[in-house]
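Fill in residues.
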């Protein structure tokens, strides 16, 4: 039977660390659905549509990967699309506590979905969307942290260069 995995996140915006994880997960599972969280308390810099568009661009050549957005409970969404695995990345020990809590809560909410933690390449262990946005906002270079298209969109969104 085909194993379908969902990789959920804010992806505001997608970074090279996310892409590394998408590639690793695509090699592990039959089908990977990258799912952008669309409803959120705090306002994201990019709309859900923009975040999904940027992801579409990076997964274009990965035949078993698709991009969608979701709102509501992640486990409900996973069940709805027939995903039995939730993929989450852990960069450092500092991520673990939050991820553990979420994974155990999701397990409590649904016994049909299992969380799998993946490690990105060490070279991306310090990378986050939040830091990328902050660096761009303050005029620093974000080359090598995000794809060129995302860099362009980020600069135009922040009205720099
Ligand atoms: O990229 P992020 O912001 O770390 O992703 C967090 C995300 C989207 C995985 C998490 O906020 C989530 O699953 N939200 C959906 C609502 C939900 O199911 N909440 C209960 C989680 S235990």
């Amino acid at each position: 039977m085909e194993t379908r995995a969902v990789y959920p996140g804010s992806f505001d915006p997608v970074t090279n660390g996310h892409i590394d994880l998408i590639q690793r997960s695509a090699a592990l599972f039959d089908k990977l659905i990258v799912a952008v969280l669309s409803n959120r308390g705090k306002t994201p810099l990019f709309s859900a549509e923009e975040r999904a568009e940027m992801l579409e661009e990076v997964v274009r050549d990965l035949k078993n990967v698709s991009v969608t957005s979701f709102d509501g409970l992640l486990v409900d969404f996973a069940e709805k699309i027939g995903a039995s695995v939730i993929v989450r990345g852990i960069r450092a020990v500092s991520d673990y506590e939050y991820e553990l809590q979420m994974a155990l809560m999701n397990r409590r909410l649904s016994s049909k979905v299992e969380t799998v933690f993946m490690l990105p390449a060490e070279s991306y262990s310090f990378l986050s969307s939040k830091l990328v946005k902050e660096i761009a906002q303050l005029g620093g270079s974000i080359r090598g942290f995000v794809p060129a298209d995302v860099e362009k969109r980020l600069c135009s969104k922040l009205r720099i260069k």
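The beta strands are 4-9, 31-37, 65-70, 85-89, 114-118.
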